[in-house]
Amino acid sequence: MAEEDKDLEIAIGHVVDMVGSGLLKRKEEGIELERKVRNFWNKIKKGMPEEVGTNMEAEPEDEAARKAFSVELDRLMKSQNVKMSIVALLYNSGIRF
Question: pTM of the full predicted structure?
Fold first, then answer.
């Protein structure tokens, strides 16, 4: 696996964890997503099949929902705008590569 592919896989994993844990807190405790995560989530789910976003929001701890979200993120990463959104989200969250 190329180094860039590995970095993308790690970045996507971080994003799935961040969004998933935020959605889980919202579902279980009624705590709204952090602004940067909420903005990213609202933007990114528009580019995904509706069922992926719906399943992720309904069952954020479900491994199948997380996997589907991960696959869609990988697909969307081909767009430079999405790539930069992910880099900005991770950077603003203190995650560096």
Answer: 0.85
